[in-house]
Design brief:
It contains 19 helices and 15 strands. The protein is of the alpha/beta class and 474 residues long.
Length: 474
């Protein structure tokens, strides 16, 4: 997410609560925790349970006001303008870079706070995968500042291609060339997230360029270190290259989707979608219920591995509760619940999480030794060969060709201008009608969202219970 779906009724109630809180006096604000997160990105029961847990740990009351967003830049604008005094926010990695550069966030992992948690035996920050911490350390930060002190990972995943197996072969989905296949005219969707599209297209363009000039063989891929360098490249030349590729693609694209792509794929109104892995998990499960077989792949040329993490804005009014909330989200049992509810993958990678997510009935076997490691760097036993959902947990061979995006600073406007030129207004008539119908029914859908969420949760619980029962018998 998403990365995500609008939450009509819950969001309306949240906004009402925020409005009421903002018009009241500041008395009691120290007992209110304002959380700003992506839509459909948490098991909301955990919010209520945190209030109880916080009371147990500190003897203090706290009430959560929860609000959601759908686009990083919208969230950032609110933080920059200071129009909403959030205590905890969940930006993506490149936004964390910008917030650190502009001194917009406070440190989370201070020595005093960690000592306090250790004294209570509730320090869960060590449950975060060392791999995730390594990736966060690659973020650009002011001299002397460790990004891991200012941002704590929450969810992560990859950017790739969701595809309909009736029309697309597994082999075809392993190259970004699929996005330019003319037989897919009006059947292609692209995530309306310019960075997540720009970076893979730049990788693909540079791969073709290297093959054309003989630097790479026909089946060879770019070196991961070079791919990491490309994540910083927002030069005029590279922007122009990506724009040329996207304009080629544009004639085939049915729509640039913020969140309707999952439904369109499930309904077979589109056959491929450039999207995030977490959305792909959701779509694959929903499509299976109506006998539509979807799959997800990260093309061989390379792609993006993204991370979302918790930060505390510098104007936060309840820093203490915010730090406790972030620690609470790092508890393995809570991480598992959030994954079951959202389809996204937590950065928490303990033996408990590995055992919960393992599914020996799956044919796929992944080497996850890069992710599931002890704090000393040694792999958790069995992590190098796990039967698991490889969309959620990509094999090390995939991770070795993916890199983290970075903030483009003052060049962001140039990239946005390119993105606007590319998108224009090219929604097909059929897709436009479908989108209108989709949003017409959105309000009624919102009424049933809570029922649907409950049903999904029960399905996940039933699947997990059956999984555990099978393990117990074996």
């Amino acid at each position: 997410m998403i990365k995500r779906i609008f939450k009509t009724i819950p969001l309306a109630a949240t906004l009402l609560g925020v409005a009421m809180a903002s018009t009241s006096c500041d008395d009691g604000r120290e007992n209110i925790l304002k959380v700003y997160n992506w839509g459909d990105y948490i098991d909301e029961d955990l919010l209520v349970e945190f209030e109880e847990w916080y009371m147990e740990q500190t003897g203090e009351e706290v009430e959560i006001i929860y609000q959601t967003f759908d686009i990083n830049e919208v969230m950032l604008a609110k933080i920059e303008n200071g129009h909403a005094d959030f205590d905890v926010v969940c930006p993506s990695e490149y936004i964390v870079e910008r917030m650190m550069r502009d001194e917009m966030i406070l440190p989370i992992l201070t020595p005093d706070f960690l000592a306090e948690l250790d004294s209570k035996g509730i320090n869960y920050f060590d449950c975060i995968s060392p791999y995730i911490k390594e990736q966060f350390s690659l973020l650009e930060a002011p001299e002397g500042q460790d990004p891991n002190d200012y941002a704590v990972g929450y969810m992560w995943g990859t950017t790739g291609i969701l595809y309909n197996k009736e029309y697309i072969t597994d082999e075809e989905a392993l190259s970004w060339e699929l996005m330019f296949d003319k037989r897919l005219n009006d059947k292609i969707l692209v995530k309306d997230a310019f960075r997540d599209v720009y970076s893979p297209m730049l990788i693909y363009a540079k791969t073709l360029e290297a093959r054309a000039n003989g630097t790479l063989g026909e089946d060879e891929m770019l070196d991961i270190e070079y791919i990491r360098e490309l994540m910083f490249d927002s030069s005029d030349e590279s922007i122009a290259i990506v724009e040329s590729y996207l304009k080629r693609m544009k004639d085939l694209v049915a729509g640039w989707e913020a969140d309707f792509g999952k439904e369109m794929m499930t309904q077979e109104k589109a056959w491929i979608n450039l999207m995030w892995s977490g959305d792909a998990v959701w779509a694959i499960e929903e499509a299976a219920e109506v006998d539509v077989e979807l799959a997800y792949a990260v093309p061989h040329e390379g792609s993006v591995v993204w991370f979302d993490g918790w930060v505390i804005p510098k104007y936060a009014k309840n820093v203490r509760a915010a730090r406790y909330f972030i620690d609470y989200m790092c508890m393995p049992e809570n991480a598992i619940r959030n994954m079951d509810m959202t389809g996204y993958v937590s950065v928490i990678a303990t033996e408990e999480v590995l055992e919960a997510m393992r599914d020996d009935e799956l044919e796929t076997v992944c080497d996850l030794s890069y992710l599931f490691r002890h704090s000393d760097g040694t792999p958790i036993e069995g992590a190098d060969s796990v039967h698991i959902d490889d969309v959620m947990y990509p094999d090390i061979s995939i991770i070795e060709r993916c890199a983290v995006m970075h903030d483009s600073g003052e060049r962001t406007d140039k990239m946005l201008e390119m993105w606007s030129r590319v998108k224009g207004d090219n929604l097909s008539v059929g897709m436009l009608v479908g989108i209108i119908l989709f949003f017409t029914t959105l309000f009624l859908w919102g009424i049933w969202r809570k029922i649907d969420t409950y049903r999904k949760r029960q399905r996940h619980i039933k699947r997990r219970r059956g999984h555990n029962e099978r393990k117990a018998k074996s």
